[in-house]
Design goal:
5 helices, single chain, Nuclear Transport Factor 2, Chain: A, about 40% strand, about 140 residues, 6-stranded mixed β-sheet
């Protein structure tokens, strides 16, 4: 990934890869020591993933659980730090196991350095995993 890639460009590329279910390529957008955090993670769910390999292990099975169709209402906000953006969006699709609909709202604070994700704080709704039929859903696409 070229070092001139902006955080917005990198994030949009990552969304395309997730829609294509290309998890290895998405993981390839991460810095070796990148950190993914889930500040609202419910009890028993990871709060912090340290390093590209931890992120890869966490995301590896996501396409087996969620068939994402789109990221709607995408808004990317610049911050006073040129390497950090704030993202608002909705992930929509279907749950593979049940065929039920999937619709999750996300807010993320994402930092990029040298064309790779270095930090990703994902604020998602932990109450959604308590809804019947969602099971793995909240965990797999954050």
């Amino acid at each position: 990934m070229p070092t001139h890639t902006s955080p917005e460009e990198l994030y949009r590329r990552g969304l395309r890869l997730l829609l294509d279910k290309d998890v290895p390529a998405w993981v390839g957008l991460w810095a070796e020591d990148g950190v993914m955090e889930f500040p609202f993670a419910p009890l028993g769910w990871p709060e912090r993933l340290e390093g590209r390999e931890a992120v890869a292990a966490y995301m590896r099975d996501y396409p087996d659980h969620i068939d994402l169709h789109d990221f709607r209402d995408l808004r990317i906000h610049q911050t006073t730090s040129p390497e950090t953006i704030v993202v608002e969006m909705r992930g929509v699709g279907r749950l593979v196991a049940t065929g039920g609909s999937f619709d999750m709202t996300y807010i993320a604070v994402v930092s990029v350095q040298d064309g790779r994700f270095t930090a990703y704080r994902d604020y998602w709704n932990p109450l959604a995993v308590q809804e019947p039929g969602l099971g793995f859903a909240g965990r797999s696409v954050r």
